[in-house]
Amino acid sequence: MKTLLLPFLHDIDVGAIDQGFALARHLDCRLVALSLVHRPEDGVIRLEVIQQSKDFLEFLYRRSRHFQIPLQRIELHTPSPLSSIRALASELNNASILLFMRNEKGVLLDTDTILAVLQDLRLHFYLVLLHNKHEVITMPQAVLNLLQDSRQSKVTLTIATQQPVPQPELPTTRY
Description:
Blueprint: E1 2-8, H1 14-27, E2 29-38, H2 47-67, E3 71-78, H3 81-91, E4 96-102, E5 105-107, H4 111-119, E6 125-129, H5 141-148, E7 159-161
Parallel strand pairs: 1-2, 1-4, 2-3, 4-6, 6-7
Antiparallel strand pairs: 4-5
Helix pairs in contact: 1-2
C-alpha cells in the first residue's frame, strides 16, 4: 500500500485534514501523520506547542476511524522540521508529502517549509490549494515563481483543488 505523509507544525485545519483523508481514500493510500514539534536553539519547547501536537494526532486518529483510512501517528521533536520531513519521506520509501496552501500561506506547515519541499527535486508531493472564505482558489505567487524559474524546469507540480469530502456511510441500526 502506498503512503502519504501528512506533516504538521502548527494550527489544526479541519478542512485541510479532511482533504488529506479524501485524497488518501482516492489514491488508496495509508496516511502517516507527522507532528513536528520545533525545538528552538535554547531547547525549551513551550507546553502549548506540545499540547497542539497531541491534539493534532488525536484528531487525526478520530478522523481516520471516521474515514476508515489506515493511519500511523508520529510525533517528532526536531530542530529542523524540513530535514525531518525529508528523512521520514525517504524512510517511508519516498512517500508522497501532502502540502496545503490557502491565500498565499501554508496550512499545517509554514510557507517557507512548503516552498522548500516544492524545490527539492528528490521529494514527491501533492500540493492542495484550499479555497478561502469566499470559496475562491488562487495559485500562490511563490508557486507561480517556481514554475516560471528556468532552473526549476524539472519540477513537476501535482496540484489539486479542494473537493467535496465524501462522508462514509454509517451502518444503520434497527431497534
